[in-house]
Specification:
Elements lengths: L9 H33 L3 H27 L10 H5 L1 H11 L7 H32 L4 H34 L3 H26 L14 H9 L2 H32 L2 E5 L2 E5 L1 H21 L1 H8 L1 H19 L7 H37 L4 H29 L10 H11 L1 H13 L7 H20 L2
Antiparallel strand pairs: 1-2
Helix pairs in contact: 1-5, 1-6, 1-7, 1-9, 2-5, 2-14, 4-5, 4-7, 5-13, 5-14, 6-7, 6-10, 6-13, 9-10, 9-13, 9-14, 9-15, 9-16, 10-13, 11-12, 11-13, 12-13, 12-16, 13-14, 13-17, 14-15
Length: about 475
């Protein structure tokens, strides 16, 4: 029966994955450029931006679980989660443009405008990404099929990253010329239109197949109790926070690292000398890393089957941290070594990003197996909150530490500021990566355990269908 369909068509896998391309047109822009936009273009102090990012998460402690609860209780002919891809995509696109608009206000007015638009944008991000993430848990009951689907999803996510890394700075220059603020506004307009189109495609090409037990009654308190007693979810959620701190601190610092430390460089390669600007070097650095990350993501299912999902996540995150720390010791003019270490780091991070969401869907199955109740939306909303908490902490850390080390936008930096930028690019992310890996040592849902859970849940669902 359709409800028990385990294996998805290639069309559905690609269609689902395009939703993460759409999300990452924004998410990658947040990670790579939002801090830079607010400090070097919009004109806010770095410490102020860091504090704004952190305050936003206070609202998310309410907003995220509320969205998950709403999605769990949504019932339409299109399912519980798919309709939000249509309902929210256009507001999401509009808010993206407004967030990257620089109004002609005084400093207080600009701060208020930034706070309001950024908070509204993150609310819209929640309203579309909680249902999108939950959809992966109900599109098929098969755990390994979801792992493969997660690989498709994150290859598509990294394609979104490639689009951002390859085009954003060029589009800003094309649309804005000497007016960088105007360039950012128009660039986000282009990205927003593409994101809306991709979300619509995901809606059209997917179907929901896994539903809560028919006897289950809505009970938010019980759903919340199930969540906080779900040990596997707590562990992967904690690891996610540090995983995101790792990648956000590092990625947010790349543009500063090249603009103020690496600078423009002359590179000799195969007998020829090239003069490369810091913009070209930073874009090439990000692009080459993302390409290698995609290769790692494609190989995730093979790694997960051979070494177990838990072990793959843990050791690959640890490996990424080790390569990150090694970059601290690379001299300013050792560009080839810098790029080489980044390629190793990026390859190791590919399976980490893929497995993060596959492990979350496993914790949803685990909760149903233990409690005989399913609250997919709440679990994925709480999981998205962990991701956004890591995103926010990472952004706040960058803002606060840039200010602590004496960073001043658009000026030559002193030695202390350069040291701070180098630490933010390398050592501080590595520390977060190690902590995230250590949290996963006690994660109990290995491949063998998930096969048992899947078999028992299938038996329950078959019995339920037979009695109805």
């Amino acid at each position: 029966m359709e409800n028990n369909k385990k294996y998805l068509s290639l069309k559905e896998k690609i269609g689902y994955s395009l939703g993460d391309t759409a999300s990452n047109l924004y998410f990658q822009t947040f990670m790579l450029f939002l801090m830079y936009f607010y400090t070097d273009v919009y004109g806010l102090p770095a410490a102020t931006v860091g504090t704004m990012f952190l305050i936003t998460r206070i609202w998310d402690t309410v907003n995220d679980p509320v969205m998950g609860t709403i999605a769990d209780r949504t019932n339409t002919r299109w399912g519980k989660f798919r309709p939000y891809l249509i309902w929210v995509s256009v507001p999401f696109g509009i808010l993206g443009v407004l967030t990257f608009t620089t109004p002609d206000f005084d400093p207080t007015g600009k701060l208020i405008y930034a706070f309001v638009t950024y908070n509204l944008l993150m609310m819209a991000y929640t309203a579309i990404n909680v249902p999108y993430s939950a959809l992966m848990a109900v599109i098929t009951p098969n755990s390994m099929e979801r792992t493969e689907l997660s690989s498709f999803r994150f290859v598509a996510a990294f394609v979104g990253g490639l689009i951002v890394q390859a085009s954003v700075l060029a589009l800003v220059r094309y649309f804005g010329g000497d007016n960088e603020a105007l360039g950012w506004q128009w660039t986000m307009g282009v990205l927003s239109m593409l994101a809306i189109l991709l979300f619509f495609t995901t809606f059209i090409t997917t179907k929901e197949r896994v539903y809560p037990p028919k006897e289950q009654k809505s009970d938010f308190k019980q759903d919340l109790k199930d969540l906080i007693s779900n040990k596997p979810w707590i562990l992967i959620a904690g690891a996610t926070v540090f995983q995101l701190v790792f990648i956000v601190v590092r990625n947010s610092t790349i543009i500063y690292y090249f603009k103020y430390y690496i600078l423009d460089q002359k590179i000799s390669l195969f007998g020829a000398t090239y003069e490369l600007s810091y913009e070209v070097l930073s874009s090439s650095f990000m692009l080459s890393g993302t390409i290698v990350t995609i290769i790692g993501a494609i190989l995730t299912k093979w790694f997960a089957q051979k070494f177990d999902k838990k072990n793959t996540y843990t050791f690959f995150l640890l490996g990424s941290a080790i390569f990150s720390a090694a970059i601290f010791f690379v001299p300013q003019d050792a560009i080839i070594l810098l790029f080489l270490l980044n390629l190793f780091l990026s390859f190791f991070f590919g399976p980490v990003s893929v497995l993060q969401w596959a492990l979350y869907t496993d914790t949803a199955d685990y909760s149903e197996w233990v409690n005989k109740r399913r609250a997919t939306g709440l679990i994925m909303a709480a999981s998205l909150f962990s991701l956004k908490l890591g995103l926010t902490l990472g952004g706040a850390i960058v803002g606060w530490l840039l200010a602590y080390y004496g960073f001043v936008a658009n000026q030559v930096q002193n030695a202390e500021a350069i040291t701070g930028i180098k630490l933010l690019m390398t050592i501080y992310p590595a520390i977060a990566g190690v902590i995230g890996a250590l949290l996963m040592v006690k994660y109990p849902l290995n491949n063998k355990m998930m096969a048992k859970i899947e078999e028992e849940l299938e038996s329950r669902r078959a019995n339920e269908l037979a009695t109805n």
